[in-house]
Amino acid sequence: MVQKAKILLVDDRPENLLALEAILSALDQTLVRASSGEEALKALLTDDFAVILLDVQMPGMDGFETAAHIKRRERTRDIPIIFLTAINHGPHHTFRGYAAGAVDYISKPFDPWVLRAKVSVFVELYMKNCQLREQAALLRLQLEGGGKSAVGESKEPAGLLAELSARLAAVEEQAEALSKQLDDDSADAAAVATAAHLERKLTGLRRALDALEPGTGSGAPSVPSQS
């Protein structure tokens, strides 16, 4: 069973949160509410999120301040942030949003279809990254365990490599399809950059597997970092 991604919705107005939930419910992911910047930061201490929808105008800690805290934390700095705002003070205001670390800046009222499409891209990227981390963790376990399966049974090296290669190929195929979709849809530069980062990590993991093939060198290769 594939685990659902979590999407953090941050807005001080309950009716806005309700509207966001209605728009994003079709994605069939886990939607988490936060009614303030402080509440959002607490949620980020314990849970991993695919994307954050963050209202700019909030009492106390506003969206810009909240984003600054998120980007300072190592655990959360890479989570995409989409700013939502009911006001528009021109290019300077928008620039401040991007400077705070947002991948997008959307003015209200926004097109529900557009918002849902943007969020779905980051959810897909998050899921592919999760798959990649799982494959890398499996590779580490297999290398450290001397080629034993999850239930403790020994596997022939060729069979182990074939299994790992097949699992990685499935992720590579999905990542390639996603990249083509981003190109076709003229997606945001941030989404394209995130997809490219995912492809680079996949390439590193593929090279590590290839290095294990007989006749390609000695010793166990290093598994690429997942940062």
Give a description of the structure.
The chain has 227 residues and is α/β, with parallel strands linked by helices. Helices cover 55% and strands 11% of the residues. It has helices at 14-24, 37-46, 63-72, 91-99, 112-144, 157-184, 189-211; strands at residues 6-10, 30-34, 51-55, 81-85, 104-107. Strands 2-1-3-4-5 form a five-stranded parallel sheet, with helices on both faces. Helix 6 runs antiparallel to helix 7 (189-211). The protein is elongated, with a radius of gyration of 20 Å. 28% of the residues are buried. Residues 216-227 have low confidence and may be disordered.
**Morphology call:** elongated
The strands making up the biggest β-sheet line up spatially as 2-1-3-4-5
Proportion of helical residues: 40-55%
**Average predicted confidence as pLDDT:** 78
* DSSP strand tally: 5
- Helix- and strand-based class? alpha/beta
Give the N-terminus to C-terminus distance in angstroms. Answer: 25 Å
Number of helices: 7
Backbone CA Rg: 20 Å
What fraction of the residues are assigned to beta strands by DSSP?
5-15%
Largest sheet: 5 strands, parallel
How would you spell out the order of helices and strands? Answer: EHEHEHEHEHHH
Low-pLDDT ranges: 216-227
Overview in brief:
This protein is an alpha/beta fold. It has 7 helices and 5 strands, in the order E-H-E-H-E-H-E-H-E-H-H-H. The chain has a 5-stranded parallel sheet with strand order 2-1-3-4-5, with helices on both faces.
